[in-house]
Structures are given as C-alpha cells and as structure tokens.
C-alpha cells in the first residue's frame, strides 16, 4: 500500500496492483484486468490491457 501511495500517476498505480495480482495466479489476474477495464476503459487502453 505504501508503494502505491508513493506513485504519482494512476497508470503506475494500476501497473503495480496488476503485477501484484498476477503473482497470485491466472484466475486472479484475469478477474482483476476485467474489472479494471470495466471501471476505466481509457486507462486500460493507455497501459495496453485491451
């Protein structure tokens, strides 16, 4: 959490959270990416998730 709070851009925060979830496995990663893209399609596009 401290690492995320220290980041300035939403894209950097999203990348860190996604990388953390990816380490938990494929199902968790897929669910997180899907949820993130539903919440903010522009962000997902800008960081190359779709």
From TrEMBL:
List the Pfam families hit by this protein, alphabetically.
CARD
Question: In what residue span(s) does the CARD domain sit?
Answer: 1-50
GO annotation, biological process: regulation of apoptotic process
Tell me which Gene3D superfamilies the record gives: Death Domain, Fas
Q: SUPFAM superfamilies this protein is in?
A: DEATH domain
Q: Which residues form a coiled coil?
A: none
Name of the protein in its database record: CARD domain-containing protein
